[in-house]
Amino acid sequence: MALTITDECINCDVCEPACPNEAIYMGEDIYEIDPALCTECVGHYDTPQCALLCPVSCIPKDERHIETEQQLLEKYQRIIDAKS
C-alpha cells in the first residue's frame, strides 16, 4: 500500500529528496505523497526511506491505497520502465 503524510508534518524537507520514485511533493500546506508513484521503496530499499527519516513519524501506510508486495513490485517496474 502507498504511504501518506499526516497533518503532523512540520515541512522539514527531509522526505522529499529521500524518495527514490519522486512520489513526494509540496502540497498546499504540507508535503503529500502521490499513491500512483509510491512503492514504499519496494525495489529500492528494504524500508520506506521517508518514514525512516521523518523526525515526527507522520508517514503511516495509507489505508485508502491497499496493495500487496507483488503489486508494489509491479508498480516499481512500471515506474522504472517509464523512465527508460
Automatic annotation (TrEMBL):
Residues 1-29 form the 4Fe-4S ferredoxin-type domain. Keywords: 4Fe-4S, Electron transport, Iron, Iron-sulfur, Metal-binding, Transport. GO terms for molecular function: 4 iron, 4 sulfur cluster binding; metal ion binding. Its cofactor is [4Fe-4S] cluster. The keyword 4Fe-4S applies. PROSITE patterns: 4FE4S_FER_1, 4FE4S_FER_2. This is YfhL family 4Fe-4S dicluster ferredoxin. It comes from Acinetobacter sedimenti. The lineage of its organism: Bacteria, Pseudomonadati, Pseudomonadota, Gammaproteobacteria, Moraxellales.
